[in-house]
Design a protein that fits this description.
heterodimer, A: 114 residues, mainly beta, six-stranded mixed beta sheet, four-stranded antiparallel beta sheet, 54% strand, B: 111 residues, seven-stranded mixed beta sheet, globular
């Protein structure tokens, strides 16, 4: 079985500052990794994913995450945040165990301060 | 456009009532999932289904029931046995080896 730990439940950051949201996972087999974003009273939207290939993956709105197998991490970064990035972010891992069901972290609330 | 639709967006339930939350997808995904979300507790899996006419309990199935008679539909019934049903409910679907596509959620409140 796999597990996901999001190390920070809340992250406040000033507008235009950089941010890193941390995610560590555990699994005995190869994994797929995902970051989802949730705005208030909405469902989760896929932000970016690592399935294979390049360990650095990017989203269309400036976020990036790097798969680090040795440290079992998939941290999410953005060099300069905007007010509109205020949301909750969920890291998730998937590995073959009869299905590719996702295991989610408990989420990190990012608050961007003007 | 393909997607996953949850209805209604808001639902109010009286004590002792059963209510059914709808989830429909036109993505041709085999797997479908129901999650419950409470503040500070992340996502908790209620039920999931990998194929039509088959489903399995998740971590918090007590007080809930589901059916999967069609590939496109996976309704969730919150029964009167669920003692604390007030929460945000999310439905998701998945194609093999990929991430989930989520619906926009249903907020259920007991009145």
């Amino acid at each position: 079985a796999q597990s996901v730990t999001q190390l920070d439940s809340q992250v406040p950051v000033f507008e235009e500052a950089p941010v890193e949201l941390r995610c560590n996972y555990s699994s005995s087999v190869s994994v797929y990794l995902f970051w989802y974003v949730q705005y208030p009273n909405q469902g989760l939207q896929l932000l970016l994913k690592y399935l294979s290939g390049s360990t650095l993956v990017e989203s269309i709105n400036g976020f990036e995450a790097e798969f680090n197998k040795s440290q079992t991490s998939f941290h999410l970064r953005k060099p300069s945040v905007h007010i509109s990035d205020t949301a909750e972010y969920f890291c998730a891992v998937s590995a073959w165990a009869g299905s590719y069901q996702l295991t989610f972290g408990k989420g990190t609330k990012l608050s961007v301060i003007p | 456009d393909g997607g996953i639709t949850q209805s209604p967006k808001y639902l109010f339930r009286k004590e002792g009532q059963n209510v059914t939350l709808s989830c429909e997808q036109n993505l041709n995904h085999d797997a479908m999932y129901w999650y419950r979300q409470d503040p500070g507790q992340g996502l908790r899996l209620i039920y999931y289904s990998q194929i039509v006419n088959d489903f399995q309990k998740g971590d918090i199935a007590e007080g809930y029931s589901v059916s999967r008679e069609k590939k496109e539909s996976f309704p969730l019934t919150v029964t009167s046995a669920q003692k604390n049903p007030t929460a945000f409910y999310l439905c998701a679907s998945q194609t093999t080896g990929n991430g989930y596509t989520f619906g926009s959620g249903t907020r259920l409140t007991v009145v």
